Amino acid sequence: MPEPERRRWRDLVERRLPEAARPDWPVHLDHCFARILLDNTCGGPWRESVGAPAWANMPLDQLGAATALGEAVLAGQTDLDWLNRRSLALRDKPPGRPRGPGGARAAPPVSLGDGDLILRRWRPGDEVALAALNADPAVMRHFPAVKDAAASRVEARSLARRFRVDGFGPWAVEVPGQGFVGFVGGARVLRVLPFPGGERPGETVEIGWRLARSAWGRGIATRAARHALADLFGRCGLDAVVAFTAEGNAASRRVMERLGMRATGGFRHPALPPDHALAPHLLYRLPAALFESERSGA
Predict the structure, then answer these.
(1) CA 202 to chain centre
(2) How many CA atoms lie less than 13 Å away from 158 in the CB half-sphere?
(3) 298 vs 156, 291, 292, 293, CA distance in Å?
(4) pTM for the whole thing?
(5) What percent of the chain has pLDDT over 70?
(6) Which of 30, 42, 93, 256 could tie 46 with a disulfide, CB 3.0–4.6 Å?
(7) Residue 99 has what pLDDT?
(8) What CATH superfamily is the domain 111-296?
(9) Where are the domains of the chain?
């Protein structure tokens, strides 16, 4: 007998969504609903990261996120047509890149940065470097676990796709003489999260970072994030971004504060059991106007 989470998923895509389908919805069949929700949850064609059938093989955390996304569709908190277009774009199929809330006004550049710090688009060789970073327990100490090479490969491809699908994403960070040292940048939040705005998946953009130990203590995260924020607020026209991290992640919280972000409360991350040590998270927010005023010294 499958766990309750797996039963809820099957009931959602096999009965509830097809029964609720409206004439203006782009799909009406159970496998189409599953494709849309799973692709958006996985950040790419879902079969690249989980074997079929998804209800039996997907980790419960991811399956729960996909179920919550479907519940948001039923509640009118996210647009199924937009999610469908995004799923097709993740598969490199027409009708092309969907422009969601705060969508990019122009195509992303090849790179950002200054003389000794480069934020660039992802390359195939970055998968190996990301796997090494994700295997470091010190780097991943505020995550539930380290990631193996297969999971890192899926993550790298998902991060790279975001630029094509959303017009922005986390940039690969390169330091001359060191090469790839991690990533910094914005990502559209497709998971339902328990904070204001988080109940409407797709409408919130998070800025985040993950850097190798060799890049710690040198101000690289802050500098790179400022370049990424200037692009998000300028070219992409976003009104605000958020950032969140486990309460104990003092280093990331210091970066958020250096960027001018303001703490706006806390929440328990739904990807973790309520009693997990990493579940308590702090939320920070940065409006574009505040970033621009501090940047200009006003």
Answers:
(1) 10
(2) 23
(3) 38, 10, 8, 5
(4) 0.93
(5) 95
(6) 42
(7) 56
(8) Gcn5-related N-acetyltransferase (GNAT) (3.40.630.30)
(9) 4-90, 111-296
